[in-house]
Fold each of these.
Amino acid sequence: AADAASGGPEVAAAVAGTDAEAGPGPAPEVLSEAVSLFADRVTAVLPDFTVDAGNSVAVTRLCRRLDGIPLAIELAAVRMRVLSVEQILDRLNDRFRLLTQGSRGAMPRQRTLRALVDWSYDLCTPAERALWQGLSVFSGGWDLEAAQRVCASDEIAGAAVSDVLTELVDKSIVIRREDAAMPPGDGYGVRYDMLETLRQYGEERLAESGRRTALRLRHRDWCRELAERAEAEWFGEHQMRWLARLRLEQANVRATLEFCLSEPGQAWAALEIGAAMWSHRLSWTSPSEGHHWLERALAAETPAGSERAKALWVDAWLVLLRGDAAAARPLLEECRALSERLGDEAQLAGAVHITGFAALLAGAFPRAFTLLEEALERRRALGHRGHAWVALLQLAMAAVFMNSPRSSALCEEVLETARRERAEWSVSYGLWIVALDRWRRGDAQAAAAMMRDAIRVKVRCHDHLGLAQCLEGLAWILTGEGARPRAAELLGAAHMVWRSIGTSLSGLGHLAGLHDRCEELLRRGLGDEEFTAGFLRGSELTLDAAAAYALEGGPPLDAGDAEQEPGVAAVLTRREREIAELVARGLSNRQIAETLVIAQRTAENHVENILRKLGFTSRAQIVRAWNTRQAG
C-alpha cells in the first residue's frame, strides 16, 4: 500500500495535493498512512484485495477525500463488500456536495466524518439502527449479556441481539475485543465498545427516537443488579473476578449515577448503587470518588429509609479512609438515629461498626476494640459474612496497636477465614495484619516476607490504598533491620501513593503514630539530609515502580532512578500512550480532542486515567516522564 501511495505520477499528484476537487487534503505522510490503513481494512473483508496500478489513484483520492481520518477510512473500507472504490467515491462526493451546497472546496474534518457516519447509519437495517442507538447508553464498553439486558426491544428480540451485534461489528460500528483484565474462562472476557464519535452519534439518534429515558432506565437497572450481585458475592472465591469486572464497568456505573442524579426522582437509585459498592471500593479511583457520588445522592431528596441509612455509614467509611474524621461524625450520628427509628438492625450494625473504625483511626484503641467487638457480634448474628470479616480485621488491628494479648489469635483468624473463603484480596489484608503482629513480636524476617506477599496481591487488584499501607509497613520493618536507606525510600513511595488517592496519613491515627516513630529513627540513623534525599527519590516513583522496588530486595535507588523508570508506558493502553505523547508535546485537552477527532470530555477522562495509573498529580509529571522515556 505504501508503494501504491507513491508508485505513479497520478498517485504522486494526488498525494501532493493537486486534486482540485478534493481540496488541499492531509499531509503526504498522513495520506500514505491512510492508504495503508485502507488496504489493511479492505483485506480483512476481501482477502484478495490489493492496491495496484488499476485502483491506486482512486484509493488515494478516496483517502484524501476522507482527510485521512482513521474512523472514516474504517467505515468506507467496510463498503468494499458491495461497492468498488470508484462507486464509494461517487456516493461520498454526492453527499459532500449537498453538505457544502455545491462548493468544490474541502470540507472541515468534523463535517467529513459526519457525512460518513450518516451514510453508514442510513445503510443499516432498522434493527441495526435500533441497536446502535441502544448501545450508546453504555460507557466504556459492555458484554453480550449487558447488551441483551438493556437493548432488547420491539425491533430486536433478546435472542436476536447477538446476531445484530455481529452485523455492527462487521460494519466497524462496534469493536469486539478480548479483555485481558478478566480471568480466562469466566464468561466475561469478550467485550464490545464503540468509538466515542459513533457512540455520540447513536445517542443523538436515540434522543430523536424518544427512547432515551427508557433505555437509560434499563441501563440503570442493569447497573443496580450488577452492584447487588457484586455485594452479595464479594467475600469468596469470586472476589478477584468481581474486582476485575467492576473495574471494567467503572464508566458505566459513573454514567448511570450521573443520570440518576440529574433525572428527577431517580436519586434513590444512586443511593442504592453507591452504597452497594462499599465492598468494592477499588471500583472507584479513590475513596474521594465514592464519596463524591454518595454526597450528591444524600443531598438530593430521597426517602428516609434503609437505603439512606446504609448510604450514610458507607459514606462515613469513605471519608474516614480519606483521613477526614470531622466529616464522618455527622454522617454516623444521622445513620444511628435513622436506623434506631426504623428498627433496622443491619444499618445499626453499620453505624456501630464504622464508629468503631473511626475510633481506631483516631488512635483510641481500647474504645475501638469495644465497639468493633460489638459490631462483629451484630454482623455475625445477622449472617453478614463479608461485613463480619471486615469487623474482625479491624478488631485485630486495634488489638495489634494496643499490644493486646489477643492480637496473635485474632490476626491468625483474619487470615485463616479469608483463606478458607478463598477471598484473595481479603487474604492480602490478612497477610498485612499478621505481618505487623509478627514484627511487633520480634520476627522481622517473617514479617517482611508476608508484607511482600501482600504487595503482590495489591498490585494484581490495583488496591492503591492497600499498597500504601504495605509500603508503610515494610518501611517500619526494614528500619530495624539495618536497611535504613531503603526504608526511607519506601516511606517516600508510600507518601506518593497516599497523595495519589487523596488520602492524608495525618488522619489515619493508627498508622500515623508508627510512621512518625519510623521517620524519627531514620532521621536519627541517617541524618536529616540523607533521609530527605531518600524520601524524595521514593516519592518520585510511579505506582508500579514503587511496588517493584519493594519486592525486588536490591540496593537502594540511585539518584535519578525514579525519573528513568522504563515501565512508564507499559501500564498504559495504546490510546493512553498516544494521548500521553500529545500531552508531552504541550497540547491542551481541547487540542488533543481536535487532533484525535474525539470529544473533549473523552480526552479529559484519558488524561485523568493516565495520571491515576502513573501515580502522578500534574501534567508536568507526564511531560517529564515521557520525555525521559523518549531520551532513553
Amino acid sequence: MPQVLQNVVFPTERDPDILPLYADPETWATIDDEPVRVTSVAHLSNVLDRHRARVQAGRRVSFASYFNAFPASYWQHWTTVREITLSVRTNGPATVLVYRSNGEGVKQRILTNEVDGQATTRVDLTLDKYGDGGWIWFDIFADAEDVIFEGAEWTTEQEPARTGKASLGITTYNKPGFCVETLAALADAPDVLEYVDRIFVIDQGTDLVAEQVKFDEIAGRLGDTLQVIRQSNLGGSGGFARAMTETLARPDSGFVQLLDDDVRIEPESVRRSIVFGQYAAAPTIVGAHMFDLLDRPKLHAWAEVVDEDPFMWRTLFQERMPHDFAEGNIRQTPMLHMRLDADYNGWWMCLIPVDVLREIGLSLPAFIKWDDAEYSLRARAAGVPTVSMPGVALWHVSWVGKDDSLDWQAYFHARNRVLAGLLHSSRPEGGTLLRHSRRMDLKHLMMMQYYPVALRHRALRDLLSGPAHLWPSLPTAMPAARDLAKQFPETEVHRDTGTPIRSRRGRQVFAHRRRHQFDSPTGLRLRWFTASTLARHWFHRPAPENTTQPEVEFSKLDAHWWRIPVVDSALVTTADGSGKNVYTRDRAKYRSMLLESIRLHRRLRREWARLSREYRAALPSLTSPESWRAAFEETK
C-alpha cells in the first residue's frame, strides 16, 4: 500500500500573507540579474478547501512553494527512499508540468501532460540526482476554461524503517490562548492524529490552559490523546524534559515531538516530520523551520550551526536571513535549492526518536537557552544527526522586537553558552569563547548596561562552583535574576504618557540616517576607541546635570556600543518600541564590574580543563530520567 510522504495542502486560514508559502501564482521576469514580479493572480477565493483550488482560465500556478514542493535532496541524503510517485488530480482542460532542480537552482522539466475532464497525472520519480540539493514540483496551466485542482500527494511503496507514533510535548507558561489554538488545529487534522500517540501539555503557569473557554470542547474531541500536566515553572528544558519522560513510558511512542507554546502550527508539517523520522536511514532528530508569527511570509531559520572557535550559534547564510517568501519564492531563490546541513534545531518544533532519549538522556537542566543546541551536539557525538527539514515549519514569535540579552535572560545566555562549551568544545580553553564573553562585558559596561553584566557575572560564578549548582538553581535562577533588576534603575521602562521623559537636548540623534551606513570603528581606531573609552569611564565622573536628566536620546537602531559610551547618560527606545530606558554612567559600578569581569574570566581560563572534566563526568546524571523525575517530585 502506498505510503504518503507529503500531501499538497492549502492554508487552514484565510490569510493572504501566507498564500505564497503554498502556491506561487506569479509571473516573473529577470532584470539586471534580479527577479522582478510582473503580475500576480493570487486570490484566496481560488482556494476551495484544504486540498483543492481553482486555476483560472489562461493562468498558470506553480507549486514550487515552500510547503508544496518536494525536498528531494533531503529525502535522498537522509533516508533510504529512492522511488516515489507524484499523483496530481485535476478536472478540466489543463497542462500539468513537472520540474526538478539541482543544488544550484537550475530548473529542468521532467514531464508535460495535457489532460481534460477528470484526470490523474502520475509520474514515477527516482531520487538519485539530488546529492547537493534540489526540489521536485509541478505547475498547472489552465487552458480555455477554469481548472479545478483536486489534490496531489507524494507517495512511496517502500516500508518505513520504524513505525512508532509520536507523542507531542507542548511546554507553556501563561500563554494558554496559543496552546488552545494548537490543540484545535490538531483536533481538526485527523490525518495527523493517526501518527500521534499522546499530546502532553506541560502547563507551568498560573493562567491555565484547562481554564480557557474553548478548552473543554477541544479536549472532548481529542479524548484520551490529550493529557494536561501541571508542574512548577522549570523553564523550557524542564517542560520538555517532562514530555520526554512521559513519552518514555508510552510503548507506542517512537518519537517525542517538542512544540513551543507561542506558535501557530501547520498540521501537515507535524505529520511530515513524523513520517520523515520513520523513514530516516538511522535515528535522526528532525527539526522544523521558523517563520515569523507577526510577519508571516518571513523565514528566520533554515539550518542553524554552532561555530566552533567562538562557540556561538548562528544560522547558515545569516546575511540572507530572514528570507521573505512574498518577495521571492523557491524558483527565484537559488540558495533555497541547496541542501543545508544543521548542527541543531530550535525546540520551537523538533522531533526526537525515543531511542535517542534512551541512549543520550534528556534535556540539560538549563531552564532556557542552549538546551536545544546542547542536545543536538550531544546527539551528534553519539552519531545522531539533526536535519532541519524544508516543508516542515511553524510560525513563532521571532526575536525581532526583543533584546533578551539585556533582561533576566542574560544570566542564561551567559551561563548556558559557557556550559555547553565546557561540555562540547574541542578547542583548548574553549577557543575564543571566553575572549568573546569578556568583550560582551566590556560592551555592556561602556553602554552603561550594568544589570546584564551583574547577571553574567553571577552566571560565571555559578559555573565555577561546579555541576552541583544546576539542580538547586533550576526553579530559583529565573526569579532571582528578575529580583536583581530592582537594584538597577536602568531596567525601568518609561512608558509614553501625557508627560513623557525627555533628554536635555530634547530630540533624537539619528546618526545612522545621516551616514546611511554603520560607522563602527575598526583596526587601530577600534583599539584606540576601546582603550580611551575604558579610561574615560574609569577616571571621569559624569556631569551632575546628566545624572538627573538624560543627556541625549537614541533610537534603538542608533544605540550602538560605539555611540552611547561618548555620553554620560542616554535615553534609548526599547526593542519593541513600547517605552524607553535611561542609561546613566556609574563610575563605582563600572570600576568594580570591570575588575570582576577580568578576575572571573582569568579564573575560568585557568580552570577550564578541570571544569570541563567535571561537567562532562556529571552529564549522564544531569540528563538522566531518574534525576529529572526526582526534580519533578521536589518541585511539586
Amino acid sequence: MDTPGAPNRDAFVFLYGKRERSINLPRLFVPLLVGISLTVATAGIASLPKKGEPPLTAQTQRSGGQVDPDQAKLQFDAADLSFEVLPDTEQLKAVAVESFTPKAPADKLVIDLDKNLGPSAIAIDGQKLPASAWSNPDGRLTIKLPRTYAAGERITATIAYGGVPHVAVNAPWDDGVVWSKTKDGRLWFATTSEGYGCDILWPCFDFPEGEPGKVALHITIPKGLKAPSNGVFKGVDTGADGRETWNWEIKHPNTYAIALNVAPYEVISADYKSRFGNTIPMFYWYLPGEEEQAKKLFAEFAPTLDFFESNVGPYPFGDEKVGVVETPHLGMEHQTINAYGNAYKKAPEGFDWLFQHEFSHEWFGNQVTAANWDDYWIHEGYGEYMQPAYGLWREGYARYATMLDDQRNKIINAVPITRGRWITEEEVYETSKGGPGSDIYYKGAWMLHTLRWLIGDKQFWDVTRLEVYGRPDPKPGNFTPRFGSTRDYEDNVRKVTGKNLDWFFDIYLRKADLPELVEARSGDKLNLFWLTPDKLPFPMPIEVLVDDKLMKVDMPDGTATIDVPAGAHVVVDPYARVLKRSRAVEDYRAGLKLKQ
C-alpha cells in the first residue's frame, strides 16, 4: 500500500467564518482539497460543553454487531488523519484522507462518523462533491460516489470534518474526549473510544474487522505541549504561529486504538534487548513533577515485557514501540500508546496492575483481535488472567492464589459469556442489555486458570501462542495482527492437545451457571459427582487431599468413588484448581447487594 501522507508539510488555510486559522497538512492534501470550502463555525459558542455533551445518536453509541453490507464490500487500506486541537473552544478540526479497495462493485461509501463532527466537505479522488452527494443524519455517513467503482479499484476519500466532540462522562467506561488541566493549569487532553467506537473521533468502520492497513496521524497542538500517539514517531513540524504538528504512523491499528493525548509531557525512554534478538524502543510520557514516580513505573516495563515474551511470544509491535502515556482517566489499551491513569498506586503484589493489564492487551486485543464482540472474553479474560500469571512468574504460587481468590469473589454468573451470534459492544459490557459484563474478565480469567491445570503449563502456553499469532513459531517479522474467535480458540486447543474439550467450553462459555461438585461421604467411601446446567457432560478431574496424600481423581462420566480411611481429613480441590460453584461466594455476593 502507498504511504498515506508525508512528513513534508505545507500550510493550508481553514476558514472559520470571518476568522482564519492555519493548520499544517501533508502536501498530499492540498491538490485534493482545491476548490473545497472548509467552513466550520467556531464563533458563537455560548459555553463550553459539559460532560455528556453534545449528545450521541444511538447509531454512534453502537459499536460492532452485524456488519453493514456496503461496508463489507470494502477493504480499508489506509487513513491519513490530521487533527487540530483547539482547547479555547474545546473543539477538534480534522481532515481524513482514506483509501478503500472494493471487493465488489461499489457506488457509495458508508463510513461511521459522529454527526456532531460534520462533515463539512468531501472529495473523491480529488473531485469535489456537492453537499447533496452525502448525508449523515444519525452518524452513518453515506457518500454517493461519482461513478461505480469496479472490484480492485482504489477509492480515495478526503473528508473535512470537526466541531465539538462528545465529552466523556466517566472515561474510559463512557467514551469521548477529556478536557482537563495539569496542576499548573496547562492543557491535559485525552480520548477514549472502546465502547462507542472509533467514529466519535474519526471516519472509520466501527466494527473490529474494520481495521485499516495503515494510519498516519498529524496532531497540531498549542505551543509548549506534546502529543504522543500511536506507532512510530515521524517528527514535529512547527508552524508560523509557533504551534507544533506531531506526526505518527501505525500499521494495522485496532479500530478503537487510535488515541490523541496532549499535555506538557516529559518522557523517559530506553531500548529493550529482546530475547528474540530485536531491539524495542520504550517510552513513558508523564506529567511534570512526577519524575521519581515515573522512573519507578518505567522500571516495570522491561521485566513485564520479558514475562510476556518468555511465556506468550514476541512483543507484537517491536518495530514501532512500547509506549505508555499518563492520562486524566484510568486507562485503555491504545495500541503502542497505552493510557495509564492509576496515580502510581502501590499494590501488595509489587507491580502496577493497571499498567500490566493494559500492556497485556498488546497481545490480547491488538495482536489478536476478537472479530465479534461476542468473543471479547479473549481480550479481557486473558487480560485479567495475566496479572496472577505474572504474580506466579515473579513470586510463586502464594501470590498467584491470592490474586486469583480476589478475582473469584467478583464472578456473577448471571448470563453466559458468549451467545454465538453477532452482537454489539454494549450487549457485552452492559448487564442491563443482557451482557455478561465483568464476567468476561473474572470468569474468563478463572476459566483460563482451570484450563491451564487441565492441559498443563506447556500446552496452555502453546494454545495461547497459537491463538495470538496464528502460528506456533512466532518470531519478529513472521506474523501480523490477526482476528480470532471462540471457535478458533477451541480449534487451537484441539490442535495442541489432540483432545475435544467442547464439554469444557460448553459449560464455562455457553452456560451461566457453574458446575457444582457434590461430595457424599459414607463410611470409608467418598462419592463425588458433578451437577451441571441442563445435565451437560462434564468429565472434569479433581484433586483430593486425604490427610497428607494428594491424589488426582478422574471423573470420565462426571462421577467417582474413592476409598478414604474412616476418620481421615479430606479436602476436595485443596488448591482451587477448578472453577466451580461456591455457595460461600454466592452468600458473600448476596451480602454485598444488601449493603448497597
Amino acid sequence: MCGIAGIYTPGHAIDSSILDQMSQRLAHRGPDGAGQFIDHDLGFVHTRLSIVDLAGGAQPLFSPSGRSVTVANGEIYNAPDIFRDLAARSITPTSHSDCAVIPILAEQDTAGFLPKLRGMFALAVFDRDQRRLVLARDRMGIKPLYICRVPHGLAFASEIKGLWPLVSAQATMNPAAAMAFLQQNFVIGRETAIHGIERLMPGERIDLAADGQIRTSVWWSLTDEARSARETDWMQTDALTQFDELLHASMSEHRHADVPIGLFLSGGIDSSILAYQQAGAPDAHAWTVGFNTHSVHDERAAAQQLAERLHIPLSTIALRPERLFNRQVMALWAGDDLMGDAACLPTLELAQAASRSHKVVFSGEGGDEVFAGYGRYRPVPVQRWLRALLKPGSGGFRTRGRLDRTPRVLLTSEFWRQDDIWRDTQAEYWQQSSGLDLMTRMQLLDMQGWLVEDLLTKLDRMLMAYGVEGRVPFLDHRMVLFGLSLPKHLRRQGRLGKQLLRQWLAKQSAASINPAATARKKGFTVPVGDWIRSVGAH
C-alpha cells in the first residue's frame, strides 16, 4: 500500500519541483519512505508503506534489464506464483516485493500483462525504450487512480491532492459532480469535484505513446465477465463447497505480508466469516466500535462474543459525539473526493487504533454486493415501476435523489441543469447489463457505483490517513463472479439476503453462538441525529 504520482510530457522536460510537491501531498499514504524517478520527460514519485520485502521493496521498481520502470499502489496477491514461474525461466527480479513482478511482466507482454495480475492495484509502467506510459487500475476499483491533462501530456496520482499542484491555479468546480453528490452522497463514473481531474475506472488502462497519442481501453469488464458467468444451477452442498474453496484461496493470498494482519470485526456475517478464517493466526487482533445510544444497532456485544469464542484479542472503542464531531475536518481532508458517508468518522477511529500496532487489516467490504445482502435487491414491482418513470431505461433502481423534493429555489438553476447527468450515467450502466436477471443487474450497478465510490473510497482514504492498508477478501474477482453465478434462492430468500454465507456460517457453530447466521442485516448505521442533539445541548 502506497501513494503514487507522476507526469509524462513526451518531448518536454518536466519540473522536478512539481514532483516534490506531489510527493509531499501523498506522504500520509506512505509514511515509511519516498522514492522518485526522472527520465527527462517522465517523472514518477512513490510514498511507501512497507508491508512486503520491508528492506528491499522501495519503489520505483525496475525490470532486470532496466528497460521497464514501475510505481504501484496495492498488493499483487499471486506474486509468489509469478516469482516461481520466473525462477523456472531463470529470471531474477530486482526485489522480493510483490509489485516487482509488474515491470517484468509488462516488459515481456505490454498488451497482455494486466490479466496475469490478481490483486488490488493502481499502477504506472514506463517503457524507457519505446517511451510509452501505461496506467491501469484493478478489476474491482479497490485502489484509486486520478488523472488530468497537462500541457504536452498527462499526470496521475493516487488522490486528487496529489494533482493539486498542477491544477490549483485554474481549478474550477464541476457542477455536474457536485449535483450528483448532493443527490446520492457519492458520484458514480469519471467525474470529480474539479474540472479536468477524472477517475481512471475499474478495469481500465491508458496508454500514452511517445508521439503524445492517448488511448483508453478496458482490460477487464465486470459486466462482461458477469454475463459469461451467468446464473448457475448450483446445488446448495456444491455451492457451499465451492465457496469454502474460494474463501480459503482468497484468504491464503490476502495473508501475504511481512507484517501482522488485523481485522475490523462487527459481529455481522461478513466480518464473522473473516474472523473464523483468522482464528489462530499469529498476532491476530480485532477492533470494533460502538455507540452509547439506543437509536442504532450496537455491534460491540456480538463482536465480543465471537472474538471470545475464537480467542481473538478484541479492542472495543466507545464513540462519543463530541470526539467524532472534532474529526469532521480530518475526514473531509482524508476523503479527498465527493463522498459524504458519515461512517467515515468511526472508520477514522478504527484506523487510528489499528495503526498503533498493525499496518494491515481485513475488512468485509463487498459481501453485501457480491452475495445480495441488501433489502433493496427485493423491490416491490409497483414501486420499481413508479421509480422507473422518473428515468426511463434505469430499471427504477437507485433513481431517487435526496433533493428530489427540495424546493428548486434553494439551488441555482446551474445545479438543476446538471440533475439528469448522474441519472444518465446510472441508466447507461443499467443498459450495459441488459439480458441478465434483475437481481444481478442491481448488484452490478451497486458494485459500479455505491461500492467503488462510497464504501471502497471510505476504506482506502480513512485507513491511509493513518498509514493502514485495508484488504477485502470478498472482492477477489473469482469470488465476485461466483457470487453473481448463484441461483437467486442462494442469494435471497424472503427478507434475508446472503443465504449461502448464512449457511456457511451456521456450519461453523450453532446459531446461538453465531447469531449473525440468522439475523437480518442491520448495517453500519451512524447516529448522526443523536450527535447533533448532544452537541447542541452543550
